[in-house]
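Case study B.
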Amino acid sequence: MGHIVEIEGVNKIYGKNHVVRDLNLTVEEGEFLTLLGSSGCGKTTTLRMIAGFEEPSTGSIKVEGESIEEKEPFERNVNTVFQSYALFPHKTIFDNIAYGLKMKKVPKAEIHERVMEMMELVQLGGFEKRYPTQLSGGQKQRVAIARALINRPRVLLLDEPLGALDLKLRKQMQLELKRLQRKLNITFIYVTHDQEEALTMSDRIAIMHDGVLDQLGTPTEIYEQPKTKFVATFIGETNTFDGCVSAIDGTDITVNLENGAVAGSGSGFSILEFLTVSVRPEKMKFSMEPVEGFSLRAKVKDFVYVGNVIKCIASLPNGNEVRIERLAGEELPEAGSRIFLYWEREDAVLIHNRDHLMFQMLENISLT
Amino acid sequence: MDKKISRHEWKSNLLPALVMAGPVTLVLVFLVAVPLVYVGVMSFCSIDEYYNVVFKFSTENYVRLLNADYLKIYGQSLAMAFITTVLCILVGYPFSYLIARTKSKRKTLLYMLVIIPFWTNSLIRIYGWRTFLGTNGWLNGLLQFLHLTGEPVDFLFRQGTTVLGMVYCLIPFMILPLYTAIEKLDGSLLEASADLGARPFATFFQVILPLTSSGIFSGSIMVFIPCLGYFFVADILGGGNSDVIGNLIERQFQSGNNWPLGAALSIILIVMTLVLVKLYQKVGGDMDNLGV
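Model:
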């Protein structure tokens, strides 16, 4: 496996908007990489730069080791599936799919054969004479994918391709896309704001926030070891507690919160550092008696039943809410009871707080 | 839908119906339908030796209009209208594309360059051209100043000059529908085309042109039809060498004082127009784009 796309030090600035900041990202050949983030985080701009529709303000993008800055979009071995599908409304489905091959002047017989084969692959056999307006959303999506894949690109870029579909169809298409990607062994770079979609389909996820790549990793890494508070809260549900390191003993770290002290483990932290503790709802534990190392009290407020999972909501003395999740049938505290919250040290993820740097800066200013 | 409207209902609907549809019906009846019928009737009349209209049915006018001299002018008028339309497309398309695709503030400025002359009386503008192109005009002055010509060049009173004037007068009618069609074009289609390996030239013929053809059709119809009737352009710039159908009509009503013949000519022009509009509908043109 080699590096198929290399993004080095890329910035994109529109007027006063710094849309993408110092982006470094390497995409491996044959992988399914997702750019995940909320709208306006720079993920679509990044994709459009790889496609060649936008030029980076600074930095370089290489595809297959070659810098693409000099190449026009029509010269690149990269194809795009657009969010709005962008099917040619005046051309039949056959002509839409055949477009790329016609532009490459492939012989007619071969075009016919490859289009038919591709239509079978995306399960659109028999639709060749129809026009895009005669198709449903899901079918249009398949045409858009077929139209891009028929060119046998090294990299396929997908810009929220399932955004316009309803939930059921989206789930079905997610699996189908994954199947296609495995079968054809093409590198997919996929843009979405749907974290569940990203977790389901991706080999690796790049989480972007305000133009910055916050974290790059496998779905498991991202879920279990979020590196920033944004990643922790963006992927799945979590409880976060902001606090300050009060004691370090090897990897055991004690953190003072507004409402009490808690424990976690980690390395690379320093005493008095501001950080965020993230604990997934299913990892939260409770007890009627104080537990050693923890002094976090809460009052049980409410229960929410979600199928086989029960969510218990408890409130801390400062009013913040904490969620505890249990499978149905497991032990839960009674509503209105006062409990002590705790967790296993290794279940808590300690995250360096970006605000910490700001506090340090403020301190330095006040000292000088 | 065979619901019977009761007498009472009919009566209670009458007043609002009259108030809302009445004025426009009156205007249409007295200003469009009645004159049209009058022209139609007159085209089958004749004149006596004192040029008075005699209301006696005859097809004499139409027979006269099938004469070779008249046919030659119909042909000439159609040919000039055709050339004007083609020139309007060739000049108007790139300009419309520029306006529609410019994102900057210049868009309004470019748009105004089309609209402002359009608001000015075309007769005045055509006289402007005459002053500009005449033997003592600015253009000849410039050419002589640069010693490109010794003698003044006679630009006026040629068919080409009339066509120039027609293009100048009618090009907004081409640019506006083209602008609408090009503006509606989804930019992602152009990106998709480039993404699939099409060079700009191929993208133009494969995607842009087919998707903006409706604008070309409606623009063409809106240029071609008035072109047959713009007699003042042919008069001022063509000086009798490049008559259009409009000139024939004008002459019969004015100097010729033969209203029935003029009416018959008008009817022929109306029929030509209707045939063209019908053709336009046949090729899939949208009537809304003509502003009717």
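Chain B has one domain: 69-290. The remaining cases will be described in the next quarterly update.
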